[in-house]
Amino acid sequence: MNEKILLVEDEENIRKFTRINLEREGFEVLEAETGEKGVEIAEMENPTVVILDIMLPGIDGYEVCSILRKSIPNTGIIMLTAKTQEDDKIFGLEKGADDYLAKPFNPKELILRIKSLIRRLKDSDTSIIKRGPFELDLNAKTLKKNDVFIDLTPTELSIVTLFMGNPGRAFSRSELLDKNWGADYIGETKIVDVNIRRLRSKIEDNPGKPEYLETVWGTGYRWKKD
Ligand code: CA
C-alpha cells in the first residue's frame, strides 16, 4: 500500500511541484490549500505524514499542528517554514511537529525527511518489536525469527516481551518472577532459570552459548543491546 502524504500549502505552484516529486517516489498525495481544509482531510484520510506550511490563510500551520496532534496522534508532521529563525522552528516543534524544513526546499531533501520520519514512525509502532532476526507482534502474540514462527508458551512470550522491550537492561531473577509470575512465587527463582533455559533452546542458535538472551553474572539476565 502506498503511503499517503497530505500537503497543506496555499501556494499552488509549491503544491504542484511537490506533488510531482512525491508521486515519482510512489507516494499517494493529497492536497489542502487552507488550514481548515487540511484538518478536515487529515482527519478523514489519516495520512502517514502531513507536510504543513506555517503561513496559511485562516488558521495557521501551528494551530493545525496542535489540532492534529490531538485528533490523529500517530501521524507524522513536517513543518515548512519560510523563515529560518530558530524561534519558528522551536515553536513548531513545541506544537508537536516531528521535523521542519525551511523554504525554499530541495524536493530530494523533503523526500529524505519524509522517508526518515516514516521509518521512525514504524519503529515506534509499539505493536511490533524488531530486534536482530526477531520480530515480536504484541497484538498477534507471535514471535518470528528470520520470518519463521517460534512456538512459545504464554509465560515464555511474556518473558521475551519484557526482554525485547528493554534491550540492554538486566533483570534479576526476583524481578522476572515478580513481573511474569506474580507475588505468589517469591523465592522460587528456579522457575525462572528453567523457563530461560527453555526459551533459549527455542530462540538461540546455540543455547549453550546464548547470543541474544545473555546471563549477567550475579544479577540475572538481559537481552543483548542491538
Ligand atoms: Ca504559505
Report what the structure shows.
With 226 residues, the protein is α/β, with parallel strands linked by helices. The protein has two domains: 4-124, 3-Layer(aba) Sandwich (Rossmann fold), CATH 3.40.50.2300; 128-223, Arc Repressor Mutant, subunit A. 42% of the residues lie in helices and 23% in strands. The chain has eight helices and twelve strands. The chain has a five-stranded parallel beta sheet with strand order 2-1-3-4-5, with helices on both faces. A four-stranded antiparallel beta sheet has the order 6-7-8-9, with helices on one face. Helix 6 (154-165) crosses helix 8 (190-203). It is elongated, with a radius of gyration of 23 Å. The two termini are 29 Å apart. The chain binds calcium ion (CA). Residues 10-11, 53, 55-56 line the site of calcium ion.
Keyword list:
226 residues, alpha/beta, Rossmann fold, Arc Repressor Mutant, subunit A, 2 domains, five-stranded parallel β-sheet, four-stranded antiparallel β-sheet, 12 strands, elongated, binds calcium ion
Unreliable parts: none
- Global geometry: elongated
The percentage helix is 40-55%
What is the second-level CATH architecture of the largest domain? 3-Layer(aba) Sandwich
Taken together, the total number of domains comes to 2
CATH superfamily of the largest domain: Response regulator
At CATH level 3, the topology of the largest domain is Rossmann fold
Count of runs of 4 or more consecutive helical residues: 8
Q: Which quaternary structure do these chains form?
A: single chain
Order of helices and strands: EHEHEHEHEHEEEEHEHHEE
- Average of the residue pLDDT scores: 89
User: Which ligands appear in the coordinates?
Assistant: calcium ion
* Largest pleated sheet: 5 strands, parallel
Beta-strand portion reads: 15-25%
Q: Return the structural class.
A: alpha/beta
From the N-terminal CA to the C-terminal CA, the straight-line distance is: 29 Å
How are the strands ordered across the major sheet? Answer: 2-1-3-4-5
User: What is the CA-based Rg, rounded?
Assistant: 23 Å
The counted number of beta strands is 12
Q: CATH class of the largest domain, please?
A: Alpha Beta
